[in-house]
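Per reviewer request, we include the raw input and output of the structure prediction for the construct analysed in the revised manuscript.
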Amino acid sequence: MGSHPVSVWAVKHLVSPLDRLVVRISGGRLAPPSSLAVPTLLLTTVGRRTGEDRTVPLVYLRDRETYLVANARPAGERTNPWVLNIRSSGDGRIRVGKLATRVTVREFDRTEIEHWWPEFVAVWPAFAEHYAATDERYVFSLEPIHL
């Protein structure tokens, strides 16, 4: 799916809820349906206003043990709530297939974003369209916490 408003709506209201439902019902035994097209993890953060858990499926890359996630704001949309929540909390939980773990979060600086951005665009081309429309993009590292 690209950055057309209908596609953005479909991801927000159909694909993401379906991904969360499949993973929750299967107890993580089944991957999110969107992962058939792109590598997808589920990120759970605490809502900065509600204090409640918020889970969202995200495209990811790997850098050794670290997971990298990105967002580019589509035209006409506000900053994605998961970006605001993860900045507020500084940590979260991820589920990748059967792996479920706590993570610490670090937002990338401009140089790091420039380095990784082409790889994100290669996996999900809509990132480029969204970024071109708004000039807003974010990349975060999710470092597993080994207890």
